[in-house]
Amino acid sequence: MGFTKVTGLGAACSTGLEKEKIFDSCLQGESAVGHDGLASISEDAWKYLFASAPETFRKSKCTVLSFCAVKEALDESGWTQDDLSQCGFIFASTTSQIDQWEKKLPFYKNISVEKIESGVADQSLGSPLFALAEYFGIGGPKTLFSSSCSASLQALSIANLWIKSGKVKRCLVGATELNNDLTKAGFGSLRLLSKTNACPFDKNRSGINLGEGSAFLCLEDSSLASTPSWGFIRGIGLGSDAYHPTAPHPEGRGSRESMTMALREAHVDVLQVPWIYAHGTGSIANDLSEAKAIESLFPQSPLVSSTKSLHGHTLGACGVLESCLGLMAMQRSQILPTFNFKEADPKMNIQVCGTRTEKNFSTFLKNSLGFGGINVSILFAKHLETP
Amino acid sequence: MSLSILAPTHLLASDLPLENADPRFRKATANMTMAAMVCEKVLSALPAVEKNQISFVLGTHFGEVTSTLDFLSGFHETQTPSPILFQNSLHNSTLGFTTIHLGLTGPALTVSADKATISSALETAQSLLEVTPYALVCFVDYIPTELEPYYLARYPFMEKNWNRAFCCALARPELIESNKMTVHKFEEVF
Fold it and tell me: Which of B52, B57, B111, B181 stands 20 to 30 A from A17 (CA)?
């Protein structure tokens, strides 16, 4: 049974339209969160994205943003058209092209037939998946996951299973989310939004900053000869709280289980994990639950970071965006800091990384926790050998 | 598709017991109620197994359309967003409700892959047999009556999957044999 290697990364979000810019903003603490508490892509950046995307994608913000990130990842992977014709493709999104229908379809009782028809046509989450696959000539199996904020880390996990089982040799995995009325009003109704810059794991945290972005990873079987890799997927952990529709288990039961599962599959001991790139939304309940899960599992107190106070919480896309940044950090021997972390919460016994830290490390754990109690953890490693 | 389907079960929205309904479903949407009911029935047909040993894949083309449209129209009308409608509007809320209702703590994923939703949900469940010995796969979609003609015109492949829930189980081959489970072929069921 082979392992999964990461050979290409692409990303675009509110802090930059390419991965290097986003990574630098994480090291420098440059936040895109505005006065409205949202991390939004600027108007100028949208103009650039629309101008640089092929005509076929210009109908929706979702597809132009996805195109930008897919192209960066594929360019780096070195995959040929022949490789792509057999390549799998897993996309994740909870709202997809919502910008095309949320101002039409809810008013179907009072709008024209044409508007209803176009709203219905754009409502299928999977449309961008098939449009991107057709444009880039991706001919293998395709699917889309919409499992809340854990969707894209689930996508990476299933792609890992596809590659290890031999279903595909290569798989493109990514996600895209946009800021929109539905999520903004919805998270507001749950009293989860912060009007100022979020401060994950801080004693005074008050909520999250919603963000928008896209990221894609090119995965392939480690036995294939290819360009140097960013790292390997060594273990996956998937599970559910079965506890509450929109709140995590207060003791982090499900998150602890998914981290345990990822470590077990990777044959890595808890003492060998130096860094946890947390879900860390900045919400009171999420951060406490995740911290409880971490402190109950890791006696050595590894460094814990969240970068959501810079690029915002990109919901279904956060797992791939942050995996991309984590892999870059591992290659460059940098632990990403938790911007805006000032005062430790006495209810949490974890070691939050608040400043840029140079450290050579060869493995890290990435977590996602989502509504519906959906937990995912992935253990990434720099090398195939046990760290 | 070469799959061994176990305990296929379906339920039509028109068969939902609206009067004297089970109080556990009082805050649930039609999607949630149908999904939880068919999954519960399939689960009861499986051998006793820990709830973390069952993966759950929910396939839905459009998710919670009714709650989503009600949430957005209500918000624009009143500027007061409803937290319950938002919670019920999430694409993943049917999955979340069902895992809570049945106490499922294994891997759980929502698949919404347009015309490939059914086949890729089944393939995902099959892949998850690497992680857990059993997997439940459920399909559900419910659309407001007034919008049905528009959805059917745009997505004709939905005709047989409209306003109904379907659930079945998959299992590792050795478990099917050792438990002498009745197997249905993919072609018989779909």
Answer: B111
Average pLDDT of the segment spanning B81-100: 96
Could you tell me if A227 and A7 are in contact, meaning their C-beta atoms sit under 8 angstroms apart? Answer: yes
Cross-strand pairs, A366: A277, A378
DSSP state of A14: T
With beta carbons less than 8 A apart as the criterion, state whether A98 and A37 touch: no
Type of residue at B99: T
Would you say A33 and A199 are in contact if contact means Cβ atoms under 8 Å apart? Answer: no
Distance CA B152, CA B145 (A): 11
* Residue A266 CA from chain centroid, whole number: 21
Distance between CA A174 and CA A215 in Å, rounded? 5
In the numeric block, the tokens 């060594």 are attached to A234
Query: Which of B122, B150, B151, B172 to probe by mutation at the A interface, max A CB count within 10 Å?
Result: B150
Q: Considering chain B, what is the average pLDDT of its residues?
A: 93
In whole angstroms, give the CA distance from residue A105 to residue B31.
19
Cross-chain CB nearest to A189 (options B86, B102, B124): B86
Integer-rounded Cα Rg, in Å, for chain B is: 17
The predicted structure's pLDDT at residue A102: 92
3-state secondary structure of A344: strand
Give the other-Cβ count within 10 Å of B33's Cβ.
Answer: 27
- Secondary structure of B53-117 as H, E, C letters: HEEEEEECCCCCHHHHHHHHHHHHHHCCCCHHHHHHHCCCHHHHHHHHHHCCCCCEEEECCHHHH
Give the per-residue pLDDT at B16. 85
Residues 117-176 of B with CB under 8 A from A: 117, 120-121, 123-124, 127-128, 130-131, 144, 146-147, 150-151, 153-155
Structure tokens, B44: 């009861």
CB A318 within 8 A of CB A279: yes
Residue A353 corresponds to which tokens in the numbers above? 């990384």
Rounded to whole angstroms, the Cα distance separating A36 from A38 reads 5
- Residues ≥6 apart with Cβ < 8 Å to A242: A254, A373, B51, B99, B100, B102, B103, B104, B105
* Segment A173-206, tens digit of pLDDT: 999 999 999 999 999 999 999 999 999 999 999 9
Q: What is the ipTM of this complex?
A: 0.96
Left if phi > 0, otherwise alpha if psi is -120 to 50, otherwise beta: which for B31?
alpha
| pTM, full prediction | 0.97
Q: B165 Cβ partners below 8 Å, 6+ apart? A: B10, B11, B31, B34, B35, B37, B38, B138, B139, B140
Asked if A291 and A350 touch (Cβ cutoff 8 Å), the reply is yes
- A 234-273: CB under 8 A from B: 238-246, 254, 257
- What CA–CA distance (Å, rounded) separates B136 from B11? 16
- Summarize pLDDT for A263-318 with one digit per residue, the tens: 999 999 999 999 999 999 999 999 999 999 999 999 999 999 999 999 999 999 99
Place of tokens 């970071």: A305
